[in-house]
Amino acid sequence: MPVKDLTKASDLTLRSAYEQDYKTDREKKDHVHRQVINIINKKIRISGIDYDVIDLGVLRQQKYSNVANFLQNAIKNGGVRPDTPFHQNLELRYPVDAVNSYRYVEYNVIGGGMRIVFDSETRAMFLSAHYSSPALITDSSADECIVADIACTLAVTQQNLRRHSDGTFFGLEDQSDLWIYPKRDPVFKAWLENKGSCQAQSTLKAYNLL
To answer: With a threshold of 0.85, does the pTM exceed it?
Structure first.
């Protein structure tokens, strides 16, 4: 069911609506993700692919500050998917990169199938509902750097995930300073400590997490 009045929707109402899956075209059309996309009613082309846009600045200007703040906080507090941190773009919904398999990082946000896919090459963030309809997150506010700041944080996490996963960290002769990386990057630390990421105890000890 669509949210009847998005301008008055609480965080609880928005979370519940975003968590709802859809199985039919009608349910997809009425989903809150599509409702928000329709408010902005804008597309942008990236590498030949057209994306809907969710502009937090426009939402605020049009009296949807509650929605903008909800999405902003959800993205900021999202955690890396424990078992599949790197999105392999098998559905080809994002620019194809045959060289860099670490380009896209996938985050769980909100729950119920909502995902943020972060493009570390362009620092673009895409919010998708149940693996469909990815929308580019932007912020056109003149005095707001929220999206840029979040992207900077996600870029640091992507670098740490890549260096962990490709063996760079553990190829160093001196590993005594590895503890610095999770200490400075809480999202990376949370991923390491998540049982779903299946880290060996020796790995956690190397990061001083045991």
So the answer is: yes
